[in-house]
Amino acid sequence: MSSTLSPQDFVAKWRHATLKERSASQTHFNDLCALLGQPSPAEADPAGRWYTFEAGASKTSGGQGWADVWKMGYFAWEYKGQHADLDKAYRQLLQYRESLLNPPLLIVSDLQRILIHTNFTNTVKRVYELALDDLLIPDKLAILLKAFTDPDRLRPGQTPSQVTEETARHFARLAQLLRRYGNEPHATAHFLIRLLFCLFCTVHEHLEHFRLWLLWASGAFFRIYGPWRLKNTPQVDRNDVSCLMLSVRHVRRHYTLLPVR
Q1: CA-to-CA distance for 124 and 154, rounded, in angstroms?
Q2: Host H or E run for residue 118
Q3: 60 and 28, same structural domain?
């Protein structure tokens, strides 16, 4: 096994690195292995059958691609250069995952960030984000170690149906509160339909411009009729405002509608 590397040494080494993706990715990954006390791909699997760099994969859209690192039953990993679009890297892995036997984790990173996307069947997706300095924190470093040793410990607890049921309850509560404080029923229903469309548009890349328009329209509606106005209304029940804010935050957190402030 390669020599170990302390978190402080790892962070110091990579903090100011400006190497391009191709020249840095394998060295960076091998250093992560040393940091975590894990064997590198070449040490664990010299034949490259189940743990390897540059794993060939057929794309679901057709053609051939290469995952930067693949560990069967654990993860597929894609690197990008500094300040590159890690969402694009994730979309690449989505193209490869079936060919790579659907690993439980899809991980993307540059030299400053690591994003661990869960990929478990019948669970709500969760993303663990680790910045470079997070690797100095034992609890954060433990998340990365689980990806290498026991990815099932990163499995989300909620199923999609549970989140859907909870979201439906929040939508109903939103409708009740918006009507209670004088919002016209037709306008309230129209606003909630906009939110509902946003939930579906977020998963269709080709509807990105339509989704952004919906977000702008929904945000404008909330600035007029939403909890910010309610907070300044003397007759409003503070408990209702709290419930409304929690409902909005739940929808935003699970469906990435607007930034949570």
Answers
A1: 12
A2: strand 113-118
A3: yes
